């Protein structure tokens, strides 16, 4: 990150003479694992179990029927911004062992990036104003959304919603692919970028996606919003880290039965308790000091610090189901059948969306 961030700063410096400090447009919410379980209060709201197992971080009030109000009222969060009781989740990763059994891959925490990357629709607008003057709005109260498609097993480079899903192989090589990595990775960092444009009306929709959109001009990681979804909001980017160091082959599968990685996706329930302070963050939590800046609106801990990630348990017990914590399973939970091809070759160029 630091190398490409420096490159970005250099490019912007030569182009428009803003200082490196002013291009700081991101803050992160750093989270420990909250739970790994088969529930989904967005896609399977109210159902005792969901289609597949999820890795979850954030507000502790995660249950089958978590509303935004419930999330806000969480007793605690596993994340490090004390104003944020949002809940973030993705499909859990498994490894297919040589004997055909499924081993739960340890989820070792997550980073959620809050990015100032998109601008409102305006007639005739072809590019966004400087990030020094353009501030995407806070995510609206009550917002729930999903990015990605659990059923994808192929990749269409022309589809912006598919480019928004990728995987970072972290050590010993360092590369990103839209498929699951093809190299051996100490960590597989599964990544999903969310659409940053809102229709201004709906807080959710039947498919949990159509109230949001990716930019009409630009890329999945930022640009000018479409007329149909004219309001630019802070863009979310999830990184979920799975400890894959001990696995020397590529036989991974996400919990919904996806061997390709293209079906990776993320879910978000807005649980910020102070949206004004969230909306001010990209004005006030700036510069090299980020959330440690004296004036940072997120810097509200008792000791003036932004808080810290912690280990917490969900307030409601997970479904009583063996999902792999006691050893490899004969079948994926809910008998999901793995489909798609294990990636054999690098299928896309290296992209680091958070550094654009
Ligand atoms: C790929 O995505 C583009 C843009 O969404 C779409 O127009 C095209 O039909 C897709 N191709 C396939 C084969 O699905």
Automatic annotation (TrEMBL):
Q: Reply yes or no: does the keyword Kinase apply.
A: no
Q: Which Pfam families match?
A: DUF1996
In its keyword annotation, does this UniProt entry include Cell inner membrane? no
Identify the domain of life: Eukaryota
Give the signal peptide range.
1-20
Q: Where is the DUF1996 domain?
A: 40-272
InterPro entries cross-referenced by the UniProt entry: DUF1996
Keyword entries, A-Z: Signal
User: Region (Disordered) spans which residues?
Assistant: 304-356
Which spans of this chain does the record mark as coiled coil? none
Q: Which PANTHER family match?
A: DUF1996 DOMAIN-CONTAINING PROTEIN-RELATED (PTHR43662:SF12), PTHR43662
Q: What is this protein called?
A: DUF1996 domain-containing protein
């Amino acid at each position: 990150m630091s190398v490409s961030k420096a490159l970005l700063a250099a490019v912007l410096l030569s182009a428009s003479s803003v200082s490196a400090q002013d291009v700081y447009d991101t803050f992160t919410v750093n989270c420990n694992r909250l739970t790994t379980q088969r529930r989904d209060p967005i896609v399977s709201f109210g159902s005792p179990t969901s289609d597949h197992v999820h890795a979850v971080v954030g507000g502790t009030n995660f249950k089958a029927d978590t509303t935004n109000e419930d999330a806000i009222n969480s007793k605690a969060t596993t994340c490090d911004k004390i104003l944020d009781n949002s809940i973030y989740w993705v499909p859990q990763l498994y490894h297919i062992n040589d004997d055909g059994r499924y081993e739960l891959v340890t989820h070792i925490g997550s980073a959620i990036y809050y990015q100032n990357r998109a601008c409102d629709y305006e007639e005739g607008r072809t590019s966004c104003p400087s990030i020094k003057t353009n501030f995407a709005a806070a995510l609206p109260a009550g917002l729930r959304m999903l990015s990605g498609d659990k059923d994808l097993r192929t990749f269409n480079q022309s589809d912006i919603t598919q480019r928004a899903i990728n995987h970072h192989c972290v050590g010993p090589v360092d590369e990103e692919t839209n498929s699951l990595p093809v190299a051996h990775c100490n960590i597989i960092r599964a990544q999903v970028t969310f659409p940053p444009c809102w229709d201004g009306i709906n807080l959710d929709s039947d498919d949990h996606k159509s109230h949001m959109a990716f930019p009409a001009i630009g890329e999945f990681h930022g640009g000018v919003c479409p007329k149909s979804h004219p309001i630019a909001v802070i863009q979310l980017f999830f990184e979920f880290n799975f400890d894959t160091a001990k696995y020397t082959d590529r036989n991974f599968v996400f919990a919904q039965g996806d061997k390709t990685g293209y079906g990776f996706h993320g879910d978000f329930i807005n649980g910020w308790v102070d949206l004004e302070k969230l909306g001010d963050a990209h004005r006030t939590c700036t510069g090299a000091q980020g959330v440690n800046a004296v004036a940072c609106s997120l810097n509200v801990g008792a000791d003036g610090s932004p808080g810290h990630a912690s280990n917490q348990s969900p307030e409601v017990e997970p479904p009583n189901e063996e999902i792999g914590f006691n050893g490899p399973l004969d079948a994926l939970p809910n008998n999901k059948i793995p489909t798609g091809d294990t990636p054999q070759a690098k299928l896309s160029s290296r992209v680091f969306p958070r550094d654009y």
